[in-house]
Structure formats: structure tokens, C-alpha cells
Write a structure and sequence with these properties.
Pfam families: CHRD. It comes from Thermoanaerobaculum aquaticum. This is CHRD domain-containing protein. The protein contains four helices and 24 strands. It is mainly beta. The chain folds into three domains: 133 residues, Immunoglobulin-like (Sandwich); 120 residues, TM1070-like (Hypothetical Protein Tm1070, Chain: A); 112 residues, TM1070-like (Hypothetical Protein Tm1070, Chain: A), CATH 2.60.290. It has an eight-stranded antiparallel beta sheet, sandwiched between helices. The protein starts with a helix and ends with a strand.
């Protein structure tokens, strides 16, 4: 085992200067469905332009048959990105893959943790050991937060859909990784979209198109260059003959960087009447914790004359997100309440917090962004 560790360290020390080198720690317990429980391994992946050089060292495996690079986060069954066509001599494989598409290389280097390497054996053809890629994201990479993606039926006949628009600010085509986190807490999913140089990409019905999913959640977008974007959420009544004033008025959510998030703010202009009354407006509060650790969201609702109406604290696990009616969050105190506002603070980190006010007659909604 000491020889194996020495070899791995020696290889890292000899990595070509200027190349982008990633490392991978492999184990059987990381394989979805179960791998070889007592096996382990270590690998280096070195990108030189569009050539991928690799060295894979395994321990406790009998007859490794191949190694593949996948798009996917821990716990996900990913999609194949690069088949290394690795040939093992005993427990060691070295080689290279030429002509890896530039967009794919850029996406991997921008977000190494969103990819994993998996080694197969004759007895475990779907995976014996696995590990996420590790390394610094490529300089100039960009991560943006989409606080809402929805494809869900709402109250009183509303039907909310989301379109995702991403604009590329660079002179090169960008491959963008979209990681979706359902508000239900089920496993996240990943997809990739390509955005032309100095152009935009519009993904209509983003949940259905990218993930064949419905419901609601939030997303993180990552790319190896500058990009901006937005999500349009609208009450889709196209073709409806029964809904009052059918139309597609929308609320827009600008994609936000983690650095731009605040730890406190106030949501103004809220009002709440039960949807079933068919009068006035109903208000929802939304949140997304994009961090890798939990935060606590503290909420307090006040009347226009600054009288405390209700307060609530919510612990948000990593990547937790949801949109809830104010009555659900605060209880009966806000079942019927006109002209109120909400102050919030976030402890333990930052989070996206917003309001959404929906017309009980038309089903149209307006986004309320926090004031600091």
C-alpha cells in the first residue's frame, strides 16, 4: 500500500506545469446501488487542451474492466461524458483520450465536483468503485442561482410554468451545467445546455424539457465563463376558455450569484386573502439555501403601523427550498391581512428570500424582491 501511495504522490508531483489536474478518491460505498465494499482507489485526470491523460490506481479489486467519467453529483446515477477505454494491468491503468470536445472540457473544469469517475469490474459491471472529481474550478468560472423552477398546478385553476433564459457574455460557446434541487427534498438532477458565443438560450418549460419533471424547486447553474440569465414564471392559460381573463402575465427571477445574496432584508407590499374568496391577493414567501451547510431563516410579519403580527424561524438544510403561503408559514394570524410586510434575517450564512403576490381573480403574480 505504501508503494501505491508513493506512486500516486509521485505522479502528482510530475504533473505538467500549466495543465489542469484533477484528483479522485474512489471507494465502493459511493456507487449507487452498491459497489465493492472493501475496495478503494485513487486517480488523477490531467487536461491538456482537448487531451485527457489519466492514471488510475485501485486496491482490493479483481479484474477491473474499464473506467468512465460521468456527469452527476453524489447519490446520482449520472450520464456518460467520457469513456476512458482504460486497460488495467493488475491494479493500474494509464492512458489518454484525445479530442474531448472543448465545451465538455470547459464544463468539467468549471465544476469538477459535478462529475465522477467510476471503475467497473467483471463482477460489478455497473460500478465497483466511484468518486467525485476534486480540484479548483477553472479561473473565470461562474455560478448563478435560480431560486425557482416550476411546473405545477396552483390554486383556483392556476397552472404555473417556468422558462429559463441564459445569455453568454463571452466570445466562446459555453456549456452550462444546470443542477436542479426539488423542493420535495428528493435527489437532485443535472443537465447541460449550450449557449452560443454572445448569444442566448431559451429553454421553455425548463423542468419538463431538461428533467422530464413537474413540481417546483430551485437550481444552480455553472459555466466556465461569464453569463447572466432569468427565470420567467407564469400562469399558463393559453387555450383556456374557462379561466377569467386568460393570459400569460409573468413574474421574473434574475439569476443571482452567491456573493450577491444578503443576510437580512424586508419584503414590502404584501397582502393576503384566501384564494377561495376570489377577491384581493394572496401572498407567498419563497426561499433557497444554496450553501453546503444549514442556515436558519428568521421571519417576522408586521402590520403597516409596525405591530408584530407573527414570527417564525425555519432551519434550512443544504439546498433546501420551497414556496409557502404566509398562512402556512405563520398560521391563522395572517389568514386575512391586508398591507403588511416581512422582515427577515439569515444566520449561519446567506439565502435567497423573496415574496410572490398572486391576484385571486386573474391568477397573475408579481415578485417581491427584498429591500436591504
Amino acid at each position: 500500500m505504501k508503494k501505491q501511495v508513493f506512486f500516486a504522490l509521485a505522479f502528482l508531483a510530475a504533473a505538467t506545469l500549466g495543465a489542469q489536474t484533477l484528483t479522485v478518491s474512489l471507494s465502493g460505498d459511493r456507487v449507487v446501488g452498491g459497489g465493492e465494499p472493501n475496495a478503494s482507489g485513487f486517480a488523477t485526470l490531467e487536461f491538456q487542451g482537448t487531451t485527457l491523460n489519466y492514471t488510475i490506481l485501485t486496491n482490493g479489486l479483481s479484474q477491473p474492466t474499464g473506467a468512465t467519467l460521468y456527469l452527476g453529483y453524489p447519490g446520482q446515477t449520472g450520464t456518460v461524458q467520457v469513456d476512458l477505454a482504460a486497460s488495467f494491468t493488475s491494479n493500474l491503468a494509464t492512458g489518454s483520450v484525445s479530442n474531448v470536445p472543448e465545451a465538455k472540457v470547459a464544463a468539467i473544469l468549471a465544476n469538477p465536483g459535478g462529475y465522477y469517475l467510476q471503475v467497473a469490474t467483471a463482477s460489478k459491471p455497473t460500478g465497483a468503485i466511484r468518486g467525485q472529481l476534486q480540484g479548483e474550478a477553472l479561473s473565470g468560472s461562474r455560478m448563478l442561482i435560480a431560486p425557482v423552477l416550476a411546473k405545477v398546478a396552483g390554486q383556483v385553476g392556476t397552472n404555473f410554468l417556468s422558462d429559463l433564459t441564459v445569455a453568454n457574455l463571452t466570445n466562446n460557446e459555453l456549456s452550462v451545467t444546470v443542477q436542479y434541487f426539488p423542493s420535495s427534498g428528493t435527489a437532485s438532477q443535472s443537465a447541460q445546455i449550450t449557449v452560443p458565443a454572445r448569444g442566448q438560450r431559451v429553454v421553455q418549460d425548463a423542468l419538463g424539457t431538461l428533467f422530464a419533471a413537474s413540481g417546483r424547486g430551485a437550481a444552480i447553474l455553472q459555466a466556465p465563463g461569464a453569463l447572466v440569465g432569468q427565470v420567467r414564471v407564469f400562469n399558463d392559460q393559453r387555450g383556456s376558455t374557462s379561466f377569467p381573463l386568460p393570459g400569460t402575465f409573468s413574474q421574473f427571477f434574475t439569476l443571482t450569484s452567491l456573493e450577491d445574496l444578503s443576510t437580512s432584508g424586508v419584503l414590502l407590499g404584501l397582502s393576503n386573502q384566501p384564494a377561495a374568496t376570489g377577491q384581493g391577493f394572496r401572498s407567498n414567501l419563497g426561499y433557497f439555501n444554496p450553501n453546503d451547510s444549514a442556515v436558519t431563516l428568521h421571519l417576522a410579519a408586521y402590520s403597516s403601523d409596525n405591530q408584530l403580527l407573527a414570527a417564525k424561524s425555519v432551519v434550512l438544510p443544504p439546498k433546501a427550498n420551497d414556496i409557502k403561503g404566509v398562512s402556512e408559514l405563520f398560521g391563522a394570524a395572517l389568514n386575512t391581512q391586508s398591507e403588511f410586510f416581512v422582515r427577515f434575517t439569515v444566520s449561519g450564512g446567506s439565502a435567497v428570500v423573496f415574496g410572490s403576490v398572486v391576484d385571486n381573480i386573474t391568477g397573475d403574480a408579481v415578485t417581491i424582491w427584498p429591500q436591504s
